[in-house]
Design a protein that fits this description.
globular; about 0% strand; about 240 residues; mainly alpha
Length: about 240
């Protein structure tokens, strides 16, 4: 008899041990980035200094390479396609919970970014001159590209088979780094915007894990209850062949 397939992944299980603490840590970090970006003079100037150092002019190869990734994540159907593919990968393995997590993570990150950009719109250090196309804009905080790239990477990491997790994590780190560094090269986001975007996506991920954890715990307790009542582990009992 084949061993039962265990749903989920080791990475997801480790993250589930204390998702509320992870969510609160990300929330605190996001608030700290907000304060540093808007109300602390030295960090505002440091933010601009780093951006001026990393950013490049539009006629450079580095700028053009960064712009490709920027356009990919900036294209809204990309978000829909990534979420749909992640859901299909999970459903193909009968991992319903991970499918819900992936869909909610990608869609929720996009919605939160739009809402927070509208709420937190405010001129930054060295604001954009009048009649100028200079970046970053006043609604740059948080970076939707940084948040989206991390959310997409986490979505795929949660749904791939266990044997694919390491290469998926490596690709996800490279993709998130490429997109996040790219928005600095393009001069469209401050470093604090990028870090805030990461914290937003990670915080939502932990929040979803915390919300979905009671569902898994309930299913697990029902299985344990049957084992206690029958004195047998029903999942490991050999199948009896009919006479």
């Amino acid at each position: 008899m084949a061993a039962p397939v265990k749903e989920g992944s080791p990475i997801l299980e480790r993250a589930q041990r204390n998702p509320i603490s992870g969510c609160l840590a990300c929330l605190a970090g996001f608030a700290l980035m907000l304060v540093f970006a808007y109300w602390v003079g030295p960090t505002e100037r440091l933010d601009r200094t780093i951006l001026d150092t990393v950013s490049t002019s539009t006629n450079t190869l580095t700028n053009r390479v960064a712009y490709v990734g920027f356009q990919v994540v900036n294209y809204r159907p990309t978000w829909v396609a990534v979420g749909a593919v992640a859901v299909l990968i999970a459903l193909a393995q009968w991992r319903i919970r991970d499918a819900v997590l992936a869909a909610a993570l990608v869609a929720g990150t996009g919605g939160l970014v739009l809402a927070l950009k509208a709420l937190l719109t405010n001129p930054r250090y060295l604001p954009i001159p009048v009649n100028s196309d200079a970046y970053p804009w006043a609604n740059a905080f948080p970076s939707g590209h940084a948040a989206g790239s991390l959310a997409m990477s986490l979505a795929f990491l949660m749904v791939v088979p266990t044997s694919w997790q390491r290469p998926t994590a490596i690709v996800g780190i490279a993709f998130t780094g490429y997109i996040s560094l790219g928005v600095l090269v393009l001069n469209v986001h401050y470093p604090s915007d990028v870090v805030a975007g990461w914290l937003l996506a990670a915080g939502l991920w932990f929040a979803l894990l915390a919300l979905l954890k009671p569902v898994q715990d309930h299913a697990s307790s029902k299985s344990h209850g049957l084992t206690f009542l029958t004195g047998r582990n029903l999942e490991t009992q050999p199948r009896q062949e009919p006479p």
